[in-house]
Structures are given as C-alpha cells and as structure tokens.
User: Which sequence fits this backbone?
C-alpha cells in the first residue's frame, strides 16, 4: 500500500511538472499587467511593463501589451504640445485593448485613417467608470489642456453606479494576496484560470451571495426607470464636481444600449456623443471575440472608422 501511494504521488508530481513545463514553453498562461495607485491618486498599470495577454485553451488570443511610462497600454508616450493635434481616448478594457497587439490598437488605427500627424493617446484601464475617467482628466489637467479632442467611452448601465471617485485599493492589494501570488508563480494554475475551469465555482459563490456572474455583468444593459434616474443623477453630480469641456469632449457610446434619459439629457445640455452601435449592427461579420464581448479586429476597425469620421467633421 505504501509503495502504491508513493508511486501515485511521484507520478502525479511528474505529470504536474510536465504540464507546467508545456504551459511555460508554449506560453499558454495568462499575464495581467501589475497595477498601482500613483501619486495623483489615479489607478493605473505599473509603468514600463511588457507581456502577453493570452485567452483560450489553444491560445485563441495571444496579444502583446506594452505599458508606457504613464501606466497605459500604448505604442507611444503621451507628450501633448500646442503644435501637434492630439486625441485622448479614455475608457475601460475595451479601450485598454489587451486583446489585440498594442501596435494594432484602436488609437493606431485612428492615426492611420486620419493620416495627418494626429496622435492618439489611449487612456484605457480595465474597470474604469466615469468617476475614474473624470478624475483622470482632472489629475492630468495640464496635459489635457493641450489635448485637442477628448473621447470618453461610456456604458451607461455600468459606468455610472457611483457619484464620487474613490480609488479601488482593494483591487490593487488583491494582486499581492496569497491566491494571486500562487497563480502568478504556478503557470498551470494561471492557464486553468484563463480557460475558465474555476468559473463555475465563482458563479456558485456569486449565486450563494446573490451577486451577478461575470457573464451576466457583461451582457446586462437593461435598467429599470429607477436605476436610470439614479445613474443620471450620478452623472450630473460627477459633471458638477469635475466640470465638462463641451468644446472638445465627446462620449463614445452605443445608443441602442443607452438609456434615453441620458441621451436626451446630453442633447438638452449640448453634450456631444458618437453612436457606434448602428455601425456594429450593420456589420455582416462578427465584431466581437468568440469567448467574450470585447471587440475583435473587425469591430475595432469599425470603431476606429466612426471616431475618424467624427474627428474629420469636427475639424472641417
């Protein structure tokens, strides 16, 4: 019996080492950029990182990221001047673009389409809501005063749940927790997590505590009238706190998935918005990735075209 147990443990260890080696050799594991809260109280990725964002059990998505000195995924540094034209593209993971090589980002696509020397600065960070975004603009006030166009990607159902900015210290601290440290050291666990093996357990925990699952959070955009009114009031409070430059700031949104209370209020107040939803809807080929709702390369091309068309009209 003792020999059987010893052999079982030995073979299990050898299999684990073999699978761990394969995971590392073929880089099947997920890498997340480390994050921090900087001196300006802005949550960003830790500057000057490089790595690969991997998704799927067969490396269905393998994209290189490059975190610049400002803490954002971009192929360029953010150095606005009075002499050059700049666009700030601000948003969450859809703008951060970890699902695509950083040198083929939405910002780079916009630059290529405009082809006039315009520089696009992508201030994208997973989880950003409007409070994060407006605080970012305020914190980097001197830079944003030099930037010619500010485009804020917003999802009404998800980005207006609060009216006050507080940095997410819990999320930053979580990356140093024991479970996260183990996942980062043992690549096989990171791979298993990346392909969703642990997702049923998380969903079970969420159901027990009455919370929405990750999938439900991604696809749910229908709000009650009470929620819509509450979110609009949060929007008003944030605008009152941080201000809003109507001359160069515009919201990027899917009008079909946005409360009419919000779009009507924007039109009433003269807040401009770009509706990309109809363009995605008209596409005859898929615009999102197979395994989640983020835009694929075709979807990003459409978004870049919509932004470029808006900027051309604005500059005419």
Assistant:
């Amino acid at each position: 019996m003792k020999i059987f147990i010893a052999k079982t443990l030995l073979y299990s260890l050898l299999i684990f080492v073999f699978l761990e080696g394969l995971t590392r050799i073929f880089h099947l594991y997920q890498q997340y950029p480390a994050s921090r809260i900087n001196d300006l109280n802005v949550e960003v990725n830790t500057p000057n990182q490089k790595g690969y964002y991997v998704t799927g059990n067969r490396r269905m998505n393998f994209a290189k990221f490059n975190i610049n000195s400002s803490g954002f995924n971009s192929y360029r540094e953010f150095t606005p001047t009075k002499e050059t034209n700049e666009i700030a593209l601000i948003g969450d993971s859809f703008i951060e673009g970890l699902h695509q090589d950083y040198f083929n980002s939405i910002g780079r696509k916009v630059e290529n389409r405009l082809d006039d020397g315009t520089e696009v600065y992508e201030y994208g960070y997973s989880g950003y809501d409007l409070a994060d975004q407006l605080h970012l603009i305020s914190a980097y006030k001197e830079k944003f005063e030099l930037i010619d166009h500010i485009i804020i990607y917003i999802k009404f159902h998800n980005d207006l749940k609060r009216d006050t900015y507080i940095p997410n210290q819990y999320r930053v601290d979580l990356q140093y927790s024991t479970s996260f440290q183990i996942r980062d050291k043992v690549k096989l666990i990171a791979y298993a997590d990346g392909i969703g093996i642990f997702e049923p357990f998380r969903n079970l925990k969420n159901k027990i505590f009455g919370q929405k699952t990750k999938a439900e959070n991604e696809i749910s955009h229908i709000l009650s009238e009470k929620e819509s009114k509450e979110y609009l009031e949060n929007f008003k409070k944030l605008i009152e706190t941080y201000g809003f430059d109507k001359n160069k700031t515009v919201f990027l949104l899917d009008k079909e998935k946005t409360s009419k209370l919000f779009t009507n209020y924007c039109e009433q107040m003269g807040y401009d918005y770009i509706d990309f939803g109809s363009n995605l809807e008209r596409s005859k080929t898929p615009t999102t990735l197979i395994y989640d709702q983020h835009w694929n390369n075709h979807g990003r091309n459409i978004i870049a075209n919509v932004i470029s068309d808006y900027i051309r009209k604005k500059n005419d």
User: Anything to note?
Assistant: The domain at 72-167+221-315 is CATH 3.40.50.1110 (Rossmann fold).
